[in-house]
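Incident review: delayed structure delivery

Summary: a single-chain prediction request sat in the queue longer than the usual turnaround. Root cause was a stuck worker, restarted by the on-call engineer. No data loss occurred. The affected request and its eventual output are reproduced below so the record is complete for anyone auditing the incident later.

Affected input:
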Amino acid sequence: MRDPYYITTAIPYINARPHVGHVLEWFQADALARYHQLLGKDVAFTSGTDENSLKNVQAAEKAGVETQIWLDEYAKIFEDAFAFFGIRLTHFRRGSDQKLHWPGVQKLWTRCLENGDIYKKTYTGLYCVGCESFYTSEDLTKEGFCPEHLKAPESVTEENYFFRLSKYQDQILALLNSDEHQIVSGQYKNEMLRFIERGLEDFSVSRSSERARGIGVPVPNDDSQVMYVWFDALAIYITALGWGGDETDFEKYWPSAVQVIGKGINRFHSIYWIAMLLSAKLPLPKTTFVHGYLTADGQKMSKSLGNVIEPFQLVEEHGLEPVRYYLLRHVPTHADGDFSMTKFAEVYTADLANGIGNLCSRIAKLCEKNGIAGGTVLEQFSVEFDQAFSNFEISTAAEWISEQIRKLDGFLSEQTPWTKPPAEQREILVVAVEKLLSIGYHLQPIMPKTAERILQHFSQPKIIAITPLFPRK
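Output delivered after worker restart:
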């Protein structure tokens, strides 16, 4: 039996097409999945679509189409996007799936209710539609804006169901302090500890069916209410594995979970979700992996500035592997990063065309000239590479590969095999091929197609010249 390993991405709203921030997260999660598959683990990899959201309703209304038609169209766009960007999901769950998702959410609700953690009250609060969340005045900026969307939230008075988050304050604090539930990296853990220490307040877990425009998972035994979007969407992590139905995969993979998310939704995952699972007496996921945000040329991306990076167009024009490489290597895994076409072009030339691409061409030509046979792939990661992935530092692992490429290039320049007698040339080139195959093996989680091409080409019975992996532009 192989060890199970479960990876999830955040469950995106589908009020617009996928953006480059989604793609950054998907690449990070996919790299983790591929790495652990290469370690021989039985990996499950889940994403889905957050459909029971007022944001989606408003997007459909603005487009002048029925909400369910919008949801069906955009769920398909997102599902197709995973394939387009080379993301190998094993499970995908839609929030509007009444057969496979809703029963599991209602089961989770019922468990929390039976544990005395859901109650009904009238509440007035500051609600941000963009976040689908209530805020206190302390949470807002000094201008009174939502910190994520920089817009003033609306005041909403409504009778809703609430979850007793306050009941779990001490327990969650202990879990995070002990790393029994690990938040990566430390800065994000400290943010959550400070948030808890301010005092956790019970939060709304439903809204009126009227305000939700009839979209949402019905609250059991109360048709006037549907579940709050976060209670519903977070449950996709377990309903995708069959929770509430055929629970074979749930029993197999949960709770060996790493949940890959952006920093703006950390508290929903590291506090709210943990409390819900504690209430339902379910095992907790092992890790919340938090990444930062992307800027464009040093500025926040926005349609008004016209600086939004369109990931589909970027891949169509420059190729999937260069885009994947840039986002995994040149964006710090757990910090904010910047994307600029100028930097992207520089990276393409320096790291890919003149780096790994030129190195492969040089070695292949010399091998063909000297009749060198391909080597054997040593299927083992280096200690440094393993450590980087174990610490969820994907950009560090990618930098380690870059260092090996520079070292191999330096080895060829120092040894100058082209100036040596044939026997000595062959000795040097055999070593170079072995090192290149090791680089190819390590590249598999970062640039899978490039890695596959290197491994196949330099392990064949006779190595011949190779067409450029990354043609110069």
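Verification: The mean pLDDT is 93.
Action items: add queue-age alerting; document worker restart procedure.
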